[in-house]
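Re: folding output
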Amino acid sequence: MGKGLLYIQLFVYLFSSLQAEEPFRVFKTPSGKSFEGKVVGYEGQTFILTNKSNQLFQVPFNALSNADKAYLVEGVRAKRIPKGRPAPQPIATPGAKGVDFHSEIMPILQQRCNDCHKAPYEENGRTKNPKAGLRFDTYDWLMKGSEDIGPIIEAGDTDASILFEVITLPPDDDMIMPPKGDPLTAEQIDLFRRWILEGATEKPSGKVAPTAVAKSSSPEETKDGSSKDDKIHKAPPKKKQTFRPGSFFAHVVVPLGVSPDEALAKIQGSKPKPGEPIDFDRHVLPILEERCNSCHHAPFDRSGRLVNPKASLRFDSFAQVMKGNLDGPVIVANDLEKSRLYSVLNLPEDDDLFMPPKGGPMDQEQKDVIKRWIEEGANPSKNSVSATKGGIPAPDEPVSFNNHILPLLENRCLNCHGEPYVKNGRTIKPTAGLQLDTYEMVMKGNLDGTIVTPGDPTVSTLFQVVILPDDDPELMPPKGDPLTEDERTMIKRWILEGASEQPAAEAADPNAAPKPKEKVELAVGTVDAKISVLDMLAKRVSVPSKTQIEAAQKTYALVTQLSERNPLLRAEFSSFAGEIDDSALGALGSIKNNITQLDFSRTKMSDTAMRAAGGMQHLTWLSARNTIVSDNGIKSLSSLKFLSYLNLSGTNVTDRGLKDLSALKTLEEIYLWGSKVTENGVKDLRAALPNTKIIF
């Protein structure tokens, strides 16, 4: 009897233990959408679920219905739901060949990448978005890439796969991923290599790439030793040499005609005197070079790979600082709040966006210099750095070698005439022994002699080879389009002005007046106009209430103000985009006049959503990328008087829709990549909107 009772108790204990595991359950969202899954863990406000294929996915706590929230809270309190991420379970795939994404690739991503590249989640009342807009928590998100970067996996091609590139960089490279902890092991890197070569499929493709733990294959070389994907072969930024104070080598060599004080200040940087206006070259640029340029430098070649600046931001010249990146300018003159460069310097050190990320925060004196420079108008240095954009000086502005000529040489000439570099164990020297990466090298020329004669462009080879007929085999540069007339005139003017490193006192007349000023003023005016339009629109509406914003977010819309105390809003559907349809825009009705930016990319929205967008009279920015929007939806935008940005990439828009777009004269940027438009249609659109940037 006693033994039988013991068996019964043991059976009850085992049965209750089995029941303690969370069952599969149908979860619902506030909008009524449903999905099935089993909760296997949680991290903060994010719960980890698995589907019946053993694939893990993450769900933010606030994205679920109240009933599901209560269920999860009770499960955590009862300790049925463990804290943390479960160890990934391999998926058995009988008879399959090749690398299995879920059992071999996903565990690496979960362990080494998902801290930064997971679904958005709430922390301390703030929404934390994945870094660079990249999510690696599912196969679909990994293959999607991000809006700014594009795809990061190119099936069958490791050289074109950005993810593979960044995990195979040298350990001391600022761009290596993951940025924290040890680099991936050789075995892990080889798994990624084989998976990409086998087709980068979710399930084993049946192809089997040979196991060979090695670095990424080198680009295919041509007969002249260059590679098919050569870009700019520029050496990495050199570390500054420091010498003992008082050493002979610590003295600065100053060219004739240049003030020693100015030369010393430019090299070492200087603190502004009380009441002295901030000078970009002497006060701001040295700070950026010391604290920012290790990440935000000009592109350079390292071991056959082009290393680009982080976030596509360069801080090595005034023009590059003012240019910003695809997200917009980082400096807005006289406006600290809109100047992102200044904002990130003043964030808490534990904030993901805090800058600079290494070496501690900037000194308060350095921050104050940047602050004063912005408040004083963010002006360039007098007679040093161009106030113009795009590297072309105004007609009455002396040409600067460092800010006009050198950027042009970097973009068009350094592919062949850069500094010697080592590639695949070979030293690649500049073509014809001519190096054009510094002022000294340009003036030195090569064994055939000098290529620049100050004051005389007619005998300066540098100028003569760029004005040859297009069919002349000696025309430079030999690849790509010839230099524009403005660029040729700029080189001619620089030579006429004395071809010195410092700008001349007066601009030279090339006797064929260039016309860059109108173009430049148009570009600058566009930016100023855009700012004034937003300011004007902000005065038309009042700040929406917290209740209005919360109501709008019930359909997964992420609604944020453009800036603090600004009544204008941005609405986007970045979470659960594949479940969002036209009905989601109904919740935005009460704030439609406040919305100036709308992004429903990758959703199920259609032309119905475009009609709703057409009713948002203050809209300046609209993205319908990768949706089923068609020509009928374009007609709905005709009443938008302030629309300046439109992304229709991956839509069903055809040439017929472009005819309606041609009437929107306020458009500054249109993206049509992957749509159904043709070259002829784009050609007609460019003719109708000559000042609009059209990407096709």
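--- second protein (sequence, then structure) ---
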Amino acid sequence: MEIIRLFCPVEETKRQKYLRNFKKVNPHVTSLSAEKCYHIQVSNSSALSTESLKLLRWILKGPQGDDNLSTDSHLSVKLKHETLFEIGPRFTFSTAESTNTVSICHNVGLKFIDRIEMSVRYLLTLDTNKIAESEVNQLIETVCDRMTQCRYTNENIPKNNFFECFTEPKKRWYYIPVMEKGAAAIRDENTKLGGFSYAD
């Protein structure tokens, strides 16, 4: 299993909308570059021939779009008053867009594609010398739905599959003393596993 990535610029109307929203939060924002990143999980990377990659690019660009997909990102921080962050779907579930795109891929013979998620990378330039992390977090709040999205970093971005950052439990099953402790045993286990509380 492997994840390959393809990049393309965000549509200009969306870029301008993002820029307006960022400026509302922080008036020091002067410019924005943004690109989409497609994270494509493939079960067999050797099956990704030139022909199948051409077909995949055609699907991702859309029927009327230009094929401006690249294997390299065009965004990087070069100045100290720039900041770059990436927002995408949480890794724990597959989005509807991924399900639909994978279904199309399978229907045209690209059976080795397991999942396709799209994130957006934002490169902001500010007119201040230094950007505080709290300011970056405020800007992220503008474009990130924390219920379904998260910030992608070098530490958490998936390399081979979307579930690699989740550690498997040491024990797959274990004994809960319900007969001895009753409902308290279930409540204790619920708390340990991060389940719903009474307030939820």
